[in-house]
UniProtKB/TrEMBL annotation:
Keywords: Hydrolase
Source organism superkingdom: Bacteria
One GO MF term: hydrolase activity
Keyword Membrane in record: no
Family annotation (Pfam families): Abhydrolase_6 (PF12697)
Residue ranges of every copy of the AB hydrolase-1 domain listed in the record: 14-242
Entry keyword Hydrolase: yes
Annotated protein name in UniProt: Alpha/beta hydrolase
InterPro entries attached to this UniProt entry: AB_hydrolase_1, AB_hydrolase_fold, Carboxylesterase_BioH
Organism in which the protein naturally occurs: Ideonella paludis
Gene3D superfamilies: alpha/beta hydrolase
Length: 250
């Protein structure tokens, strides 16, 4: 984990955990909107993704949490904030179960429910095909953004997703989304939590996120990002950066 993707040198430390379709350098135009004087933002690649595409691993939630904590150790961060997207939120929960004293506060963007995705057998089989079939990835991206965004953007997202991750890693992390046991382990003890839902997210709508996340953490700050789907870092980057950083400063 020596090729760090870092933005800013500020005193407040933030570790960013990407989702299934992302990687450390795929946070979109939002990155240019971040406060680099107040924050030090570091973006991780999961094993099998981005600069760590060729690093072997189990591709499970425990390994994700271990790698994130190891990166914080490498950086010399005793305490830090976390921003997690999609399946990254499950890794953040696993981090809380392993080292709750280290997370100062954390923000979950379009997070997979703590208990995992609840899918029918047919949907699960279809979604699993996204590991090897680009047309399925495109369909999921289109659904996740409310079937309202331009084709060239969807194709760009598919292309960068395919190029930046191995199919085996993508498939394994998808299975982690559907077989999560982390909720029972984490115990919800904890630092302040922000949950951000996308208004047009067809995969993880705000009603599902309210029900699944607030039932375990009723004090969480919940907000719906208007005019965004599952990828607000691409869809509403200025608003996302401001919303997250405002929370992390509190």
């Amino acid at each position: 984990m020596n090729q760090l993707n870092q933005v800013g040198q500020g005193p407040l430390k933030v570790l960013w955990l990407h989702g299934l379709f992302g990687h450390a350098q795929a946070w979109g135009p939002m990155v240019s909107c971040l406060n680099t004087a107040l924050f030090s933002h570091v973006f991780i690649d999961w094993r099998g993704y981005g600069r760590r595409k060729q690093v072997p691993g189990r591709h499970d939630l425990t390994e994700m949490a271990e790698d994130a904590l190891a990166l914080a150790d490498q950086l010399g961060w005793a305490q830090f904030a976390v921003v997690a997207h999609d399946v990254g939120a499950l890794a953040a929960l696993q981090m809380l179960s392993m080292a709750p004293q280290r997370l100062r506060r954390w923000s979950a963007i379009a997070p997979v429910p703590p208990s995992g995705l609840s899918l029918s057998a047919a949907d699960s089989a279809f979604y699993a095909n996204a590991a090897t079939q680009s047309d399925v990835r495109r369909s999921l991206l289109d659904l996740a953004t409310g079937q309202r965004l331009a084709g060239p953007w969807l194709e760009h997202m598919v292309r960068q997703s395919v190029e930046s991750a191995t199919s085996s890693a993508f498939g394994d992390y998808f299975r982690a989304c559907t077989h999560s046991t982390v909720a029972a382990q984490a115990g919800w003890a904890s630092p302040a939590l922000q949950v951000l839902a996308g208004e047009f997210d067809g995969l993880l709508p705000d009603a599902l996120l309210r029900r699944s996340w607030l039932s375990g953490h009723p004090d969480a700050q919940f907000e719906v990002l208007r005019n965004a789907g599952h990828f607000p870092m691409e869809e509403t980057p200025v608003v996302l950066a401001a919303t997250v950083e405002r929370f992390l400063c509190a």
